[in-house]
Design a protein that fits this description.
Residues 1-22 form the signal peptide. Keywords: Signal. There is one protein chain. With 160 residues, the chain is mostly helical. It has one domain. The protein has 7 helices and no strands. The protein has helices at 2-22, 29-54, 62-84, 89-116, 119-122, 130-140, 144-150. The protein is globular. The termini are far apart. 18% of the residues are buried.
């Protein structure tokens, strides 16, 4: 009888534990986008850190270039920190991973667009970059990941 009661106790604790875990709230669109953008911004910052290692002359511009992304990443983390504990972690991790993948895909496509739209060939006689901007914008528009990760440049959609 003692063994049977222990088995019931174990089964009951597993059932209670499972129902508690199953009660995780579903993330809102803002939660998922926050996680996605965290993946994008962390990748962007890490990528720029690599650039500074290979081009020390650019290091002087680091604070200027990365101030916005670092501030946005801090704001996203501040928003998510109290919420993440009660949300479905699998959905948040998937969204963040999608942000990392989209950032890499967009950067690869952007490099191909730079090759397709060389600055010296597309500037007009006045030195304007209008033609280059049109060429580059048209090229990057062909990659959906570019538009998705680009949506993280302005995080004013956060509720606070």
């Amino acid at each position: 009888m003692k063994i049977h009661l222990q088995g019931v106790a174990v089964a009951l604790s597993l059932a209670v534990g499972s129902s508690v875990m199953a009660q995780s709230d579903l993330p809102t669109d803002a939660d998922l986008k926050s996680s996605y953008c965290m993946g994008v911004l962390e990748s962007k910052i890490a990528g720029m850190d690599e650039v500074y290692k290979t081009n020390p002359s650019l290091k002087q511009h680091e604070d200027f270039i990365l101030q916005g992304p670092r501030n946005d990443l801090h704001r996203l983390r501040s928003y998510m920190a109290p919420r993440a504990k009660k949300l479905d972690i699998d959905a948040l991790v998937a969204a963040k991973n999608r942000g990392v993948i989209d950032f890499r895909t967009a950067r690869q496509h952007g490099q191909a667009c730079l090759a397709q739209c060389p600055m010296e060939q597309v500037t007009n006689e006045k030195g304007s970059y209008d033609k280059w901007n049109k060429c580059f914008s048209a090229c990057t528009a062909l990659e959906p990941a570019y538009a998705r990760e680009d949506s993280c440049k302005n995080i004013n959609w956060l509720p606070f």
